[in-house]
Backbone:
């Protein structure tokens, strides 16, 4: 029994040393590798749905972005405590919502993704939805820091967390086509929605 | 007889402990522990106010072409011909011959820092290694540490690097200066990705950073640069602000960081 | 009659139709504001200027400019890592027309180290385009602007740190020709003044680089035209023929200094002050601010070398702010004659005047003949030989000879009074008449004694010793 125990520990030690020397990965590293890769979908496509991030919406459901396939999403990034530009972003999106012809509205989804992974959980998102009077065509999402950062890269949004927990961020919105590829991006606030509306119409022809 | 048994058991216990310790050792091989400290961000909503940097591990040297090749071989979706267009632009790994270069056409560059890789590729590599990219503050904090084997101040090292053209083949990692944290090549070799490079809120016109266009950027306070005369740092931040996640640049590479496990 | 009526009506209708269609044609002709057609602009390196497009209506112009960082010559033996628009310093010359819509493509070469953008002073819009054109190495940015104002404008990189990017060579000129076009001239040239701040001193050989501190202190080592010392000197001077009209598009990139631009040997018939619409005339030196430009025009009337300088003159002769235009052709003496005469100039005129202050008299022991001859020769050659020559033969018609001089040797006071008091009026020496002026020479009695001894005993003159005491007697008016 003792012999077996000793042999076992030596075997473990030798195995670890071998790993060290050859640079292969330890068992701990193997575990982390599973959580690693960003993409698993067939590549060569321009679809943002190649990402594997998991998001919680204002109803508490967990979804991945690929759920939006077939829809025409307009995405912007905000945080619920924002008092300056985020209400204006929402207003811009609502203006677009008004301007879309009724027969083209069906597929359009408005997606707001929060920068605030620490504080904007389901309850906050729900309160925000109510406060801004957002209907069923709207999705407000919470994700972890890494997924939020990755999405900001894909949408060309710049943001920085401040000392007080608020965010400095760029404003703008991104329209995706039914496959999840970027159709058009508009920077800034209060821009004429004409280009977006035109694009939405074209995407549905 | 009891003594012997006790000694043997103690000995076995020690071996048991050694095993995971060796694993831990493996996890921080080629990395160095960066002590915590205070760092004054170059761009801040409260200019001059310092922020605390928690201790972390940082790669002693930048990731090499050889190391990145191992990653690509294990994850062929990141090969040159297969990478998604949203994760890397057309110049991805353009200095490699084919997806998996062989020894002949790799030997000159294998120990050099890997470049022409996007932020997504760098992030994926870091995750594959069980690590992450350093944050901008972490990188700048280490980048401001003086050289240990070079008498020139950091700013001088940087400005001299800026004034020289990029060589056709980059020298191997570790060939420039070492700093007092025993980290090599923080300046003078390549630009490096950080996890949150897009947290630089700088407009394209670098002259108007104190007057942020409020329609473009929501800022609770004006983001001003602390030391307008720190030209070297200005350029680093200007470079970062010109990038997008999928960009690849022939003198932009990266190194990894990781948290300290308790 | 009906036929005639019909004919008249028909003619009337035709005429009306013609007139109306003419009017319609005119009103449907393009307004200057709207754009017709597009083309890609031809960009040139200094000193060349693109030929005027000379089109009546605004067009869409595509401009493609590449940023390249590369090592080139700054002066003989001196190299510098320049950052360039288009591969050279200054950057490419862009020529468009008022009202044009420009689609600008800025590319940053993948081998470059740094991000770059562009601020064109002809752009009305944030940063002059800088806000829209920040470009990482290996990428291209595109933006558009309308050339609302005519004029000659500087463009430069505006990436932080802006001063460094400009100091390293990132600038050029863009000309927005007014609607009516600029009057044609025979020759057009592109000249851009700028400074370089280097770690090494001016002229020190080798690869040198940017010196921040010198830049802060606005103390450049080099001030040059078109990016290097001596670019347009000697063989590489710009060539013009007599009678040709010349227009220079002159930019000043700074980064620090204003230029006092002057062409030695020419006067500017016209100066488009600061590159704008106001025209000044008959100007020799014009001020060009840092980050500004001017257009100067002149006609070359006479052959020779014209030298372009910054008239803050140490910049021209000690830092490199020099360029040349070589004008070849027929001389015209009525405009400029070159040197016609070379004469001696005697400042004292016909009155005897002292050349120098009287020296203090010091009592000296009397010298021997040998001593007097020796020192007399030295003193003679220093004080007298200029006129009377070393060989004592003087100059015919001007200065009488001393050698074999009947006049000198006949004088009772041994000629001592001549150097002491001077001599004017007509005299006859060896049969020849001299009517000149010999000035009074301020020398001591001892020195005059030596000279007179030497003169009276040299060149076949047979004389005797002259003592200091004798000189003193003559001086005191014996």
Residues:
């Amino acid at each position: 029994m003792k012999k077996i125990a000793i042999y076992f520990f030596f075997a473990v030690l030798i195995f670890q040393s071998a790993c060290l020397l050859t640079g292969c990965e330890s068992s701990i590293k193997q575990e982390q590798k599973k959580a690693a890769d960003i993409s698993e979908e067939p590549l060569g496509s321009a679809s943002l749905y190649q990402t594997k991030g998991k998001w919680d919406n204002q109803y508490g459901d967990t979804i991945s972005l690929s759920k939006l396939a077939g829809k025409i999403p307009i995405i912007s990034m905000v945080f619920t405590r924002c008092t300056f530009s985020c209400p204006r972003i929402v207003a811009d999106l609502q203006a677009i919502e008004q301007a879309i012809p009724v027969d083209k509205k069906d597929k359009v989804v408005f997606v707001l993704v929060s920068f605030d992974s620490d504080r904007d959980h389901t309850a906050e998102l729900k309160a925000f939805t109510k406060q801004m009077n957002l209907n069923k065509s709207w999705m407000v999402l919470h994700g972890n820091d890494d997924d939020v950062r990755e999405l900001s890269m894909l949408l060309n949004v710049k943001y920085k967390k401040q000392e007080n927990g608020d965010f400095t961020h760029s404003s703008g919105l991104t329209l995706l086509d039914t496959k999840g590829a970027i159709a058009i991006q508009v920077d800034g606030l209060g821009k004429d929605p004409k280009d977006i509306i035109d694009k939405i119409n074209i995407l549905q022809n | 007889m009891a003594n012997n048994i006790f000694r043997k058991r103690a000995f076995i216990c020690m071996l048991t402990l050694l095993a995971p310790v060796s694993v831990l050792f493996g996890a921080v091989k080629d990395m160095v522990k960066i002590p915590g400290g205070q760092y004054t961000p170059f761009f801040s909503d409260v200019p001059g106010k310092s922020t605390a940097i928690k201790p972390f591990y940082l790669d002693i040297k930048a990731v090499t072409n050889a190391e990145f090749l191992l990653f690509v071989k294990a994850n062929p979706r990141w090969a040159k011909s297969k990478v998604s267009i949203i994760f890397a632009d057309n110049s991805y790994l353009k200095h490699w011959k084919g997806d998996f270069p062989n020894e002949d056409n790799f030997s000159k560059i294998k120990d050099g820092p890997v470049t022409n890789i996007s932020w997504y590729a760098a992030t994926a590599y870091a995750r594959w290694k069980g690590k992450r990219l350093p944050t901008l503050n972490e990188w700048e904090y280490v980048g401001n540490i003086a050289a240990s084997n070079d008498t020139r101040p950091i700013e001088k090292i940087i400005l001299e690097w800026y004034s020289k053209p990029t060589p056709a083949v980059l020298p191997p990692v570790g060939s420039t200066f070492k700093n007092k944290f025993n980290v090599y090549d923080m300046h003078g070799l390549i630009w490096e990705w950080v996890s949150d490079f897009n947290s630089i809120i700088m407009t394209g016109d670098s002259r108007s950073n104190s007057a942020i266009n409020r329609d473009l950027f929501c800022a609770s306070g004006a983001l001003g640069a602390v030391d307008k005369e720190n030209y070297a740092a200005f350029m680093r931040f200007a470079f970062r602000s010109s990038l997008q996640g999928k960009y690849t640049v022939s003198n932009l590479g990266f190194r990894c960081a990781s948290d300290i496990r308790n | 009659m009906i036929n005639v009526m019909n004919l008249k009506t028909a003619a009337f209708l035709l005429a009306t139709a013609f007139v109306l269609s003419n009017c319609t044609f005119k009103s449907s002709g393009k307004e200057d504001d709207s754009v017709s057609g597009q083309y890609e602009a031809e960009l040139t390196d200094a000193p060349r200027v693109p030929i005027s497009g000379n089109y009546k209506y605004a067009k869409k112009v595509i401009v493609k400019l590449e940023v390249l960082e590369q090592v080139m010559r700054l002066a003989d033996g001196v190299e510098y890592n320049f950052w360039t628009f288009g591969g050279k310093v200054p950057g490419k010359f862009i020529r468009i027309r008022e009202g044009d819509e420009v689609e600008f493509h800025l590319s940053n070469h993948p081998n470059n180290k740094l991000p770059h953008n562009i601020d064109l002073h002809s752009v009305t819009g944030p940063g002059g385009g800088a806000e829209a054109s920040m470009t990482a190495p290996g990428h291209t940015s595109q933006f558009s602007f309308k050339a609302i104002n005519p004029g000659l404008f500087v463009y430069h990189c505006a990436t932080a740190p802006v001063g460094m990017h400009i100091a390293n060579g990132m600038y050029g000129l863009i000309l927005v020709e007014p609607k009516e076009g600029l009057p044609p001239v025979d020759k057009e040239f592109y000249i851009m003044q700028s400074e370089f701040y280097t770690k090494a001193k001016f002229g020190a050989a080798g690869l040198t680089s940017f010196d921040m501190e010198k830049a802060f202190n606005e103390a450049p080592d080099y001030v040059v035209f078109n990016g290097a010392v001596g670019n347009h000197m000697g063989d590489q001077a710009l060539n013009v023929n007599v009678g040709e009209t010349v227009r220079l598009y002159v930019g000043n990139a700074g980064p620090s200094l204003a230029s006092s631009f002057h062409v030695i040997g020419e006067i500017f018939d016209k100066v488009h002050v600061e590159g704008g619409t106001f025209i000044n005339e008959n100007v020799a030196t014009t001020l060009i601010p840092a980050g500004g430009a001017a257009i100067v025009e002149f006609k070359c009337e006479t052959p020779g070398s014209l030298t372009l300088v910054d008239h803050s003159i140490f910049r021209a002769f000690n830092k490199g702010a020099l360029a040349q235009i070589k004008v070849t052709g027929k001389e015209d003496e009525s405009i400029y004659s070159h040197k016609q005469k070379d004469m001696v100039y005697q400042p004292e005129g016909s009155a005897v005047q002292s050349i120098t202050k009287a020296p203090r008299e010091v009592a000296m022991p009397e010298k021997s003949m040998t001593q007097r001859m020796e020192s007399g020769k030295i003193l003679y050659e220093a004080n007298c030989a200029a006129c009377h020559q070393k060989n004592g033969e003087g100059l015919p018609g001007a200065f009488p000879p001393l050698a074999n001089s009947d006049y000198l040797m006949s004088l009772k006071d041994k000629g001592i009074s001549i150097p002491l008091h001077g001599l004017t009026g007509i005299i006859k020496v060896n049969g020849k008449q001299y009517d000149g002026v010999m000035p009074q020479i301020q020398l001591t009695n001892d020195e005059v004694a030596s000279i007179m001894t030497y003169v009276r005993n040299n060149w076949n003159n047979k004389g005797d010793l002259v003592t200091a005491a004798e000189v003193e007697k003559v001086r005191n008016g014996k």
